[in-house]
Protein backbone atom coordinates (compact mmCIF):
# COMPACT_ATOMS: atom_id res chain seq x y z
CA UNK A 1 0.00 0.00 0.00
CA UNK A 2 2.79 2.41 0.91
CA UNK A 3 4.55 1.70 -2.36
CA UNK A 4 1.39 2.51 -4.31
CA UNK A 5 0.93 5.79 -2.43
CA UNK A 6 4.59 6.65 -2.97
CA UNK A 7 4.30 5.92 -6.69
CA UNK A 8 1.15 8.04 -6.93
CA UNK A 9 2.91 10.95 -5.18
CA UNK A 10 5.89 10.60 -7.54
CA UNK A 11 3.61 10.69 -10.59
CA UNK A 12 1.68 13.68 -9.27
CA UNK A 13 4.89 15.50 -8.37
CA UNK A 14 6.36 14.79 -11.82
CA UNK A 15 3.18 16.05 -13.51
CA UNK A 16 3.19 19.19 -11.37
CA UNK A 17 6.84 19.84 -12.26
CA UNK A 18 6.07 19.38 -15.97
CA UNK A 19 3.19 21.85 -15.73
CA UNK A 20 5.38 24.32 -13.87
CA UNK A 21 8.19 23.95 -16.43
CA UNK A 22 5.76 24.42 -19.32
CA UNK A 23 4.28 27.51 -17.70
CA UNK A 24 7.74 28.97 -17.06
CA UNK A 25 8.90 28.41 -20.64
CA UNK A 26 5.59 29.73 -22.00
CA UNK A 27 6.05 32.92 -19.99
CA UNK A 28 9.21 33.52 -22.01
CA UNK A 29 7.30 32.97 -25.25
CA UNK A 30 4.69 35.56 -24.41
CA UNK A 31 7.34 38.27 -24.05
CA UNK A 32 7.41 38.49 -27.87
CA UNK A 33 4.31 36.54 -28.88
CA UNK A 34 0.83 37.58 -27.80
CA UNK A 35 -1.40 34.76 -26.64
CA UNK A 36 -4.19 36.21 -28.76
CA UNK A 37 -4.43 38.62 -31.68
CA UNK A 38 -2.70 41.84 -30.80
CA UNK A 39 0.12 44.21 -31.62
CA UNK A 40 2.98 41.92 -30.61
CA UNK A 41 4.43 42.01 -34.12
CA UNK A 42 4.93 38.24 -33.98
CA UNK A 43 2.45 35.46 -34.73
CA UNK A 44 -0.11 35.09 -31.95
CA UNK A 45 0.26 31.80 -30.10
CA UNK A 46 -3.50 31.29 -29.90
CA UNK A 47 -3.63 31.04 -33.69
CA UNK A 48 -1.81 27.69 -33.69
CA UNK A 49 -2.61 24.22 -32.42
CA UNK A 50 -0.27 22.30 -30.15
CA UNK A 51 0.83 20.17 -33.12
CA UNK A 52 1.60 23.25 -35.21
CA UNK A 53 3.54 24.87 -32.37
CA UNK A 54 5.50 21.67 -31.72
CA UNK A 55 6.42 21.31 -35.39
CA UNK A 56 7.45 24.97 -35.68
CA UNK A 57 9.62 24.76 -32.57
CA UNK A 58 11.34 21.60 -33.81
CA UNK A 59 11.79 23.15 -37.26
CA UNK A 60 13.48 26.16 -35.67
CA UNK A 61 15.65 23.95 -33.48
CA UNK A 62 16.88 21.83 -36.39
CA UNK A 63 17.25 24.77 -38.82
CA UNK A 64 14.46 23.64 -41.13
CA UNK A 65 12.85 27.04 -40.58
CA UNK A 66 14.76 30.30 -40.17
CA UNK A 67 14.16 33.33 -38.01
CA UNK A 68 16.14 36.06 -36.33
CA UNK A 69 16.06 34.56 -32.83
CA UNK A 70 13.83 31.50 -32.71
CA UNK A 71 16.49 29.09 -34.01
CA UNK A 72 18.81 30.04 -31.17
CA UNK A 73 16.04 30.01 -28.57
CA UNK A 74 14.68 26.60 -29.61
CA UNK A 75 18.14 25.04 -29.49
CA UNK A 76 18.24 25.82 -25.75
CA UNK A 77 15.47 23.31 -25.02
CA UNK A 78 15.21 19.54 -25.39
CA UNK A 79 12.68 18.09 -27.82
CA UNK A 80 10.64 16.94 -24.81
CA UNK A 81 10.60 20.45 -23.32
CA UNK A 82 9.50 21.91 -26.65
CA UNK A 83 6.69 19.34 -26.87
CA UNK A 84 5.52 20.10 -23.33
CA UNK A 85 5.42 23.86 -23.92
CA UNK A 86 3.67 23.40 -27.29
CA UNK A 87 1.01 21.27 -25.61
CA UNK A 88 0.66 23.84 -22.83
CA UNK A 89 0.31 26.76 -25.24
CA UNK A 90 -1.96 24.79 -27.55
CA UNK A 91 -4.48 24.37 -24.74
CA UNK A 92 -4.80 28.12 -24.21
TrEMBL record:
Keywords: Heme, Iron, Metal-binding, Signal. Residues 1-18 form the signal peptide. Residues 1-92 form the Cytochrome c domain. InterPro entries: Cyt_c-like_dom, Cyt_c-like_dom_sf. Gene3D superfamilies: Cytochrome c-like domain. The keyword Metal-binding applies. SUPFAM superfamilies: Cytochrome c. GO terms for molecular function: electron transfer activity; heme binding; metal ion binding. This is Cytochrome c domain-containing protein. It comes from Methylomonas koyamae.
